[in-house]
Amino acid sequence: MSEDDNNMEEYPTEIHDYLTAFEKSLGSVDEMLKTMMSVSRSELLQKLDPLEQAKLDLVSVYTLNSMFWVYLATQGINPKEHPVKQELERIRTYMNKVKEIADKKKASKLDKGAASRFVKNALWEPNAENEHTSKTPLKGKKRQ
C-alpha cells in the first residue's frame, strides 16, 4: 500500500471531494489573476466608465480581502475576530452604494409628453359624451 492510499483512509471521502473542488477553484482564480495581470491597470481603467471603474476596484479589493480571510483561517487565526472582517463589511457597504447608483441609472425615465397624452386621452370629455348619447338612444328608454 502506498502512502497516498494510507492518507485517503485517514479522512472521509467528503473532505477529499471538498479539497478537490477547492483545488479546482484555486486554479480558476489563478487563471483569472493571470488574465487581469496581463493588461495594465491604466489601460483597463481607460476603457471603463467611472461606475465600472468603481465596480472593478471594489471587486478587486473584496477579492483580496477575502483571500486574506482564507489565509488567516488556514493559519488557525479566527478571521471573525480580525480587523479584516470590518474591512469586508465596509467594502460591502460601498458595493451596495454602487449597486444603488447603477439601479437608479437603469430605472426608467418618465416621458412627460407621453404621460400627458396618455392621461388626456384616458380622461372623460363631456362634449364627446354628449355627442355619443345624442346619436344613440339609451337602452330601457322609450322613443317619443
Structure description:
Keywords: Cytoplasm, DNA-binding, Nucleus, RNA-binding, rRNA processing. The chain is mainly alpha-helical and 144 residues long. Among the domains are: 15-47; 48-105. Helix content is 76%, strand content 0%. The chain has 7 helices and no strands. The chain has helices at residues 3-10, 13-38, 41-46, 50-74, 84-106, 112-122, 126-135. Helix 4 (50-74) runs antiparallel to helix 5 (84-106). The mean pLDDT is 81.
Helical fraction: over 70%
User: In sequence order, what are the helices and strands, one letter per element?
Assistant: HHHHHHH
Structural class, from secondary structure content? mainly alpha
Radius of gyration: 32 Å
Largest sheet: none
SS summary, helix count: 7
| Low-pLDDT residue spans | none
Spatial separation of the terminal alpha carbons: 112 Å
Quick one: how many beta strands? Answer: 0
Pfam families: Sas10_Utp3 (PF04000)
InterPro entries: Exosome-assoc_fac/DNA_repair (IPR011082), Sas10/Utp3/C1D (IPR007146)
Subcellular location: Cytoplasm; Nucleus, Nucleolus
Region (Disordered): 121-144
Give a summary of the structure in a few sentences:
The chain has 144 residues and is mostly helical. The protein has helices at 3-10, 13-38, 41-46, 50-74, 84-106, 112-122, 126-135.
Properties at a glance:
single chain, 144 residues, mainly alpha, 7 helices, 0% strand, elongated
Outline the fold blueprint.
Elements lengths: L2 H8 L2 H26 L2 H6 L3 H25 L9 H23 L5 H11 L3 H10 L9
Helix pairs in contact: 4-5
